[in-house]
Amino acid sequence: MEAMQALKLKLIKLFLPYLGFSIALLAAYNLGRWVLDIQLGLVSLKTEILDFWLPWLLPWLCIPLWLKRRIRLLQGAGWQQDGYFAHYFVINISVAVVIFISQINMTSAPFSLISLQHVSDVMQHPRQQYFDIEIFNVPRSRCRNIQFTDSISSRGGTSYNFKNYYTCPLDQSGTLWYAVLFSKRYNPDVDDLPRQQEQQRFNTTTEQKFAQLDLQQVSYFERLRPSNDLTALLKVIPIPSATADPMVLRARHEPFSQRLGHDYSDTLYAFIIAAVVVFLMLLVAKVKPEALQAENKRKPRQVTK
């Protein structure tokens, strides 16, 4: 009897509010980004912040306002004296992962492929993402190159992203640019060669690939949104003082239907998996005795005649 009361308490006080909170935060963040960032362009933050950092930060800011008191109904081993940190951590991560995955769909799935006759017609669609352009010319002799490395530090050590980017003008005014992006992750604990040798080999290989690449053979173009990649390319793109930042179109060679995040199924699967993980965690978690006693006191007593 007591076990059934504990399960009912966990479902009503924790699991159902968790589902409601997850759906509400997911919908609010995606709707806000769709309107303010994608449609109106009022958000000047880079995609790395909007796609990664904010989805991981928001649950840690919002959950204490809605679920933390409910999570304290549980007991168990944890880093804090109250013993609920492990449950708190799992719930935070489950919400963050779903929002993070949803951003892959948010920046891809809603957009269709816009067919254009000439490359200059792109300027008439500043909020669109993907273009199929029939007429464009890429002067290879005017292409520019930038090579750099990003480092990523974690508890397991430091890994590196080697990047070799090429950009070429698509018009005479310098407002439209063609881009080809090469990148590779390097982990010192896994890769055999030292970092400098591996980076040199990567640069040499990508230079050969670009030299052999037919710049006119493109499946579709993707407009680069504000990001670290765009910032790096703008360092080598001459920007006329009379114009705003140029539009950079990344050449894509895979079919449009195979682009990352082309439908919302990943977000749905992530939400289902996260809900199952939290449910199983609550199923094995124990409720504090005082919480059960308080719940029993709230029940109306039966009057016997």
Features:
8 helices; two-stranded antiparallel sheet; 305 residues; alpha+beta; seven-stranded mixed beta sheet; elongated
Verbal overview:
This protein has 305 residues and is an alpha+beta fold. The protein folds into two domains: 2-109 and 261-298, no CATH class; 113-258, no CATH class. 46% of the residues lie in helices and 20% in strands. The chain has eight helices and nine strands. The protein has helices spanning 2-39, 47-66, 68-71, 85-106, 195-212, 228-234, 265-284, 289-298, and strands at 74-75, 113-118, 130-135, 144-154, 157-169, 176-186, 220-223, 247-252, 286-287. It has a seven-stranded mixed sheet with strand order 2-3-7-8-6-5-4, with helices on both faces. The protein has a two-stranded antiparallel sheet with strand order 1-9. Strand 4 and strand 5 (157-169) form a beta hairpin. Helix 1 runs antiparallel to helix 2, helix 1 packs parallel to helix 4 (85-106) and helix 2 packs antiparallel against helix 4. The protein starts with a helix and ends in a 7-residue tail after the last helix. Keywords: Membrane, Transmembrane, Transmembrane helix. The chain crosses the membrane at residues 12-29, 49-67, 88-106, 268-287.
